[in-house]
Design brief:
By secondary structure, this protein is mainly alpha-helical. It is built from four helices and two strands, in the order E-E-H-H-H-H.
Length: about 100
Amino acid sequence: MKNIVAGRIAASTTEFIELALGSPLDLWLGVEDESEMERAARLDAARDILADNPDLPDRVSQVAAQAIEAHAPELFNVTLLPARRPAGWRQYRGGVAA
């Protein structure tokens, strides 16, 4: 199955998200070992993007909801495990011993 966003094929999940949002994830999440100056510049750029694209938070929510819906069976794949009781286990029935 191909993941096509805005006419481009996404090669990975990260690329799919970046194409859907129109900006790199590192801009929003930061990078390891960034300096205070780099962090300030990244946050300033993020504020500019949000000012120019007031619908971006809604798009992010929509992408997240679509991803959850598309992958819900895998994300919420819950299977019941068979009940295993330890050897010598007896069910307590209450009451008083005679």
